[in-house]
Design a protein that fits this description.
Length: 143
C-alpha cells in the first residue's frame, strides 16, 4: 500500500501545481479522480476508502469547497467504485472511463450545482481523453 500512498501524494501535489498549466479555458483535468477510480477499481473497497479519505482531506485543506463536503464526496466515490469494482473486469478501459464519468458528474453536481450542465460536459470530455492515456500508464506501473 506504500507505493499507492506515494502516488497519491504525488498526484495531489501535481493537481494543485502543474495541472493548472494544462487548462483549456476554465477546464482542467482531475488527476485525483482518475487515480481514485483506477486504484479503487483495481484494489477494491479498502483502497477506495483510504484514497478517498486522503484526497478529500487534501482537497478540503487546499481547495475552495468545505472540508466536510470534499471528504464525504471523495469517500463516497472511492467506496462505491471499490465496492462495484468487483463486478467489472479490472483491465477494462470502458468500465474505467464510465466510472470516471460518473465520479466527475458527482463532483460537479455537488460542488457547482448551479452551472452543472454548462461546465460538466466540456470538463468530462477533457477528463475522459486524459483518462484513457493515464489508464495505460497506471496499469504499466505494476503497483
Amino acid at each position: 500500500m506504500l507505493p499507492i500512498a506515494l502516488i497519491a501524494i504525488l498526484v495531489s501535489i501535481l493537481q494543485f501545481t502543474a495541472v493548472g498549466f494544462a487548462r483549456i479555458g476554465p477546464h482542467t483535468f482531475n488527476l485525483q479522480i482518475i487515480t481514485l477510480v483506477f486504484f479503487s477499481l483495481r484494489y477494491g473497497l479498502r483502497a477506495g476508502l483510504a484514497l478517498g479519505l486522503f484526497f478529500g482531506v487534501f482537497n478540503g485543506l487546499v481547495g475552495a469547497a468545505p472540508v466536510f463536503t470534499n471528504i464525504v464526496t471523495y469517500l463516497l466515490i472511492g467506496s462505491i467504485t471499490g465496492y462495484i469494482g468487483r463486478w467489472f473486469y479490472k483491465e477494462s478501459l470502458m468500465a474505467f472511463l464510465f466510472l470516471v464519468l460518473c465520479s466527475l458528474a458527482a463532483i460537479y453536481f455537488i460542488n457547482i450545482p448551479a452551472s452543472f450542465f454548462r461546465l460538466f460536459m466540456p470538463a468530462a470530455i477533457y477528463n475522459l481523453a486524459i483518462s484513457a492515456f493515464l489508464f495505460f500508464f497506471l496499469r504499466e506501473l505494476k503497483v
